[in-house]
Amino acid sequence: MLPKVELHLHLEGAAPPAFVRGLAKEKSIDISGIFDAQGGYVFTDFWHFLKVYEAATSVLQTPEDYARLTRAVLEQCAASGVVYAETFVSPDFCGGRDLGAWREYLHAIRDAASAVAVQGGPELRGIVTCIRHFGPDKARETALCAAETVGDFITGFGIAGDETSGQPKDFRWSFDCAREAGLRLTAHAGEWGGPQSIRDVLSDLGVERVGHGVRAIEDLALVDELAERGIVLEVCPGSNIALGVFPDWRKHSISELDRRGVRVTVSTDDPPFFHTTMEHEFQMLHRAFDWDDGQFARISRTALDAAFCDADTKAKIAKVLEAA
Ligand SMILES: [Zn+2]
Prior knowledge:
Elements (H helix, E strand, L loop, with lengths): L3 E7 L6 H10 L19 H12 L5 H17 L2 E8 L9 H20 L4 E9 L4 H13 L5 E7 L11 H9 L3 E6 L5 H11 L3 E4 L7 H10 L2 E4 L1 H6 L11 H6 L3 E4 L11 H12 L3 H13 L5 H13 L1
Parallel strand pairs: 1-2, 2-3, 3-4, 4-5, 5-6, 6-7, 7-8
Helix pairs in contact: 3-4, 5-6, 12-13
Bound molecules: zinc ion.
The site of zinc ion (ZN) has 6 residues, from strand 1.
């Protein structure tokens, strides 16, 4: 139970199945088809995963639902030893990009998160994400919501969704807007897209972290560039294996990227969908690559260095990591 720092976690994607089932029952929404006999989420391939994900998140409809979701997710994080997490939140799902509605959702999420932190639970920060396949116009509205609510909770901006839809440069305006507002930047790339998709988010969006980025391994010149520039990868091995980006843990690129000097970190992405937790990720990496506590401590330190939070919070979390 090492203390862990998680940088890549979708709030809706982290919704525990039991929580979603409870909410569906309260609202009389029938989503029974998305669960297996053991009560976990079940899907056959990436496209089915998106359908199941959509059905599961359809029960989240109000700020209060998001407050409850935040508490449920942080409980799961704490159970895995996570002491600091960053979560992707989106005005697209919280109020349909209406600034007034977004503020209400955000208020609920933030209040729930601070109550958990005050009681000694994990610290949480939010990264507003635009959704790539919703297109650049909607991303602008999302970026404006992010810029209006930058603060001690919303500290970053990013892009998620279908990596094969559109080009990063289409979203430059949104990223410039977020940067000017003081937000730190990350982007999903190099999961479904190849090495060029990573080059594009670095050059066109100016991000300092890349979500996934694991397919950089297909281009060793890019790997060297990532290492030299100190770009941090938010690697989610269990997610990649569940969705078939790599066939198994031993074939995952994280170990080779690390060996070549890239600053890698470990996260869970949408943990219950991929039947994983941070603890499980650490165990599987230990099994696959013989990573020891020293290696995991280094990974957590890298993640904390790359975290989008203030210096006081970093210092507080650093103490927890050092104590272990
Ligand atoms: Zn993701």
